[in-house]
UniProtKB/TrEMBL annotation:
Domain Sulfotransferase residue range list: 287-440
Top-level taxon of the source organism: Eukaryota
SUPFAM superfamilies with a match to the protein in the record: P-loop containing nucleoside triphosphate hydrolases (SSF52540)
Protein name: Sulfotransferase domain-containing protein
GO terms for biological process, alphabetical: hexose biosynthetic process
Protein keywords: Membrane, Transmembrane, Transmembrane helix
Amino acid sequence: MRRSQCRSFQITFILGLCLFVWFFVSYKWFKNSPYYKISESQFDPSISKVLSSLNSWNLRTRQDLPNQSQEAAKLKSRDNLYKNVVFERLNDIPEVKEGVLEFIQRSEQHVLVKNETGSYFIEKYGNYSSLCTDLHSDIQDLFCMTKLPYLEDVKNPCWYELGCDGKLDCDQTLRLRCLPYYHILGCAKCATTDVYNRLIQHPQIFSNNGILHKEALWWSWYKYGITNWNIKRIQTFEEYTSRFDNTAEHIQTLIQDGSKLVRKIITGDASPPDFWDFRAWPLLAQNKGPEPTILTPHIMKYIYRKPKFILILRNPTDRLYSDYYFSGYGDNPYSFHQDIVNSIWTIENCLMNHTVQHCFYSADIFAKLKSRIHFGCYVVYLKEWLKMFDRDQFYIVRTEDYADDVDKYIAEIFDFLEVDPLSDSKLHKIEMKKKQRITKSKQKADPMLPKTHKILDKFYEKYNKELSEVLKDKKYMWSDINTINKWKLSDLNKLKIKE
């Protein structure tokens, strides 16, 4: 009898323990599930609902609505994601904790935010774009993000968001985030590094935390988890904005000090692939057909306020020879010649059956090319940018002109960026800085073969002509540079270089 009771007790105890473990595990699973996060965020009174659309990306998981149709799932997921960010009535906005910022005025158009030293308008959030398509991809669909509430009194595009990445159990402090005010779009081996390093000598222009304190490489590469030839980890928009945290921290200090310098400090991103590398277009959910309808310029147009772009263009034949050595395709003019012949054949063969956009934006074609010959056809890419941005948002200069008069063009770029002008002595000091990122292997290389030069000049001729028409400036045909090159080639022929 006693044994039977003891055994019953043991069984009951074991069953109770198993039930307790089951409840505990189930609770932990539910606590971390998207269902719990969504339902909890619906009642979360934190300021993140107003100031942090980015913090809601953690709700974007494929498990949100597993048993519903894709369209229904998309609609409900979008509703859950963005109804928690945008207030329909500004009177519903909660007060911010004491010691951070204080809302002192509300209206139908904006919220006035004030700290001890100054006030800044935060624009009312608008709806997400009608182009919002995919909330469930690992690659963020930025059209599904509401417009950023840029601070009107701050020159650089900056906004406040929650400083703890959307966690519900953290201190609800506000953190300033920033995007670049300007982009040096390209092109590679056209002196982008040299220009950038001279620009950041200006006290009002800050560097970033990217590669060489210059390149974030996000819009065309890291956003999609690719580089020139390799696969990388996908990086988020939040990771991109973190490249400008040094500028954001400085501006936040200026705001706290009530300094008028907030209307002058800027930062930039000098990532040359952003101009031309559209290979990842099939990964954008909006692109359904055989050719893209949405590219990097379309996304930037939606995200930015009014960015400025700097474009440095070099004679494409000379640029390609330098890029060939820089990118490691080869190390002598003979291999260069053969690879150019193969590259031109690959492109021309593609163009027989497809459009320029298909061939120049294709990852398959890029993989077959023996050189990066295609993005020397600058006009193909520039037209995509000019579809979305006004011509006055671009400062375009030839590398050859810049090299002849550095201080003149640096002063012009300072004026374009609307920073304070520098004295002649300071400009001269900037001009005397050592040239940056020269391709040493190219310096040691033999000159390009004359026949290769002729082939490339012929290939680029029609693209240069169209570029000069788009920019309304014949110098972008590089006729003057090609004439000089012909003299050099004539001298080489006299030396009877073996081919």
